[in-house]
Amino acid sequence: LDFIFDTSGSMHVPRLDASIELMVVIIEGMKVAIQRLRDEQLIGGAYGDQEPLRVGATVYSDKPQRVTKLTEPLNDEKEIKIVDECSKVGGGTDETAAVEEVHEGMKLGAPNVIKIITLLTDGDGNKEGIRPIIQQVEQDDQVVFLVVGIAADEKVAQDIVESYLQPLQKDKESTNVFGIAATDLKQVMPGVLEFLKAQVKKRSNWRN
């Protein structure tokens, strides 16, 4: 599970705080969900004694910065580091390098691992530059990519999401790229968490 945080100037403190809170809720919820899946023996054999949940984080404004790697153990110290670094507001906005780097890094991982990238953004980015990257993410079909579009207005939030989904070539049932529009991140937390749990369960069944 790799998070990409928009920390540009337009992502003022309330949005960043809400994004970080959403990340924490997702991590804790995924811990519970994965344990339940292991209890039901829906995952386990292919993972052996490996850590069942790995978390990484990258922030970007005008360029990406890797905060933590997926290979680093998930503990309180790591979560505190992610929260601290993701709380720092930067300058301009260009998400292309961040998405490309995180996606390429995940592609190199083990093929029997469920890989999820979650991008949290207010949409002030490089819309033309991101198009071919999102198309490549869909074509490779190696990860689940979820963009959470954040805005005060519902239509603006939906437009942010559509800017990522519009380049897609597969239908909704076949694609691995999804979007959720959010005017209040606290309200969408349950939906995001349920979506991610469903993806874990769906893809774990494919691998068994």
Q: What's the structural blueprint in terms of helices and strands?
A:
Layout: E1 2-6, H1 13-39, E2 56-60, E3 64-68, H2 76-86, H3 96-107, E4 116-121, H4 127-140, E5 144-150, H5 154-165, E6 177-182, H6 185-207
Parallel strand pairs: 1-2, 1-4, 4-5, 5-6
Antiparallel strand pairs: 2-3
Helix pairs in contact: 1-6, 3-4
**Straight-line N-to-C gap:** 20 Å
Poorly predicted runs are none
Please work out how many helical segments DSSP would assign: 6
Q: What strand order characterises the main sheet?
A: 3-2-1-4-5-6
Q: Provide the structure class.
A: alpha/beta
Average of per-residue pLDDT values:
84
N to C succession of SSEs: EHEEHHEHEHEH
Residue share in β-strands: 15-25%
Shape from CA axes?
globular
Radius of gyration from CA coordinates? 16 Å
Helix content: 40-55%
Task: Walk me through what this model shows.
By secondary structure, the protein is of the alpha/beta class. A six-stranded mixed beta sheet has the order 3-2-1-4-5-6, with helices on both faces. The chain is globular and about 45 Å long. It contains six helices and six strands.
Question: Which features would summarize this protein structure in a list?
Answer:
208 residues, alpha/beta
Structure summary:
The chain is built from six helices and six strands; from the N terminus they run E-H-E-E-H-H-E-H-E-H-E-H. The chain has 208 residues and is α/β, with parallel strands linked by helices.
